Known about the structure:
Blueprint lengths: L2 H12 L5 E5 L5 H9 L4 E4 L2 H10 L5 E4 L17 E5 L2 H13 L4 E7 L12 H9 L1 H4 L4 E8 L7 H19 L7 E3 L6 H6 L4 E4 L1 H4 L8
Parallel strand pairs: 1-2, 1-8, 2-3, 3-4, 4-5, 5-6, 6-7
Bound molecules: pyridoxal-5'-phosphate.
Family: Belongs to the pyridoxal phosphate-binding protein YggS/PROSC family.
Protein name: Pyridoxal phosphate homeostasis protein
InterPro entries: Ala_racemase_N, PLP-binding_barrel, PyrdxlP_homeostasis
Amino acid sequence: MNDIERNLHNIRTSLTNDVTLVAVSKTKPVSEIMKAYDAGQRIFGENKIQEMAKKWENMPKDIRWHMIGHVQTNKVKYMAHFVDLIHAVDSLKLLKEIDKQAKKHNRTINCLLQIKIAEEESKFGLNEEDAIALLNSQEVKDLTNVHIQGLMGMATFTNDQNQVKAEFQKIKSFFDQNVSKYPKLKILSIGMSGDYKDAIDCGSTMVRIGSSIFGARNYNLR
Ligand SMILES: *Cc1c(COP(=O)(O)O)cnc(C)c1O
């Protein structure tokens, strides 16, 4: 067993069946990612669109590629033909562009709304009120080629486990309050290498794990 295979195995055994594992492969070369593929992993997450597109071209086509990073509207076209799920959608403008590009390829693109849960000042993510407004807006309901499937959140980058848990609990209760109103919201994407066990305790259905599978990255990208 190579390291990646062993790491994957250990993480999988700690996940329950209802939690989907996204293997975050950003900055890692195809040769390393193929070790995870050969160990059965089929969902990979990247945070740069061009890097993801290049990997998509060079790798087996049964991989489901998730865009987990911030998306600039003008770059949606580089992934619209293959991306499976976009995690960090936080504006109507972006949703409209995803819909437009998806139509060109006769596809539907799955999306999650990114909710701002971290205390630290972050430019990205919706507050709860704006997320509700977006879900209720007729303009969003009229989009035929996007499926909003759930919510995504990123906790504050801190060693304070209690704070991280509190932030996860906050998005989980927001999720629970709204799942019945919007039955298509089924995915709660929270949890990374350092905090995924807490995230699962708090109701995560999708974890995004990079360094615990592939090892530390050369440069520190969150
Ligand atoms: C990089 C990244 C991850 C994975 O981080 P690790 O700590 O390496 O597991 C998860 N989510 C997002 C949005 C990321 O950018």
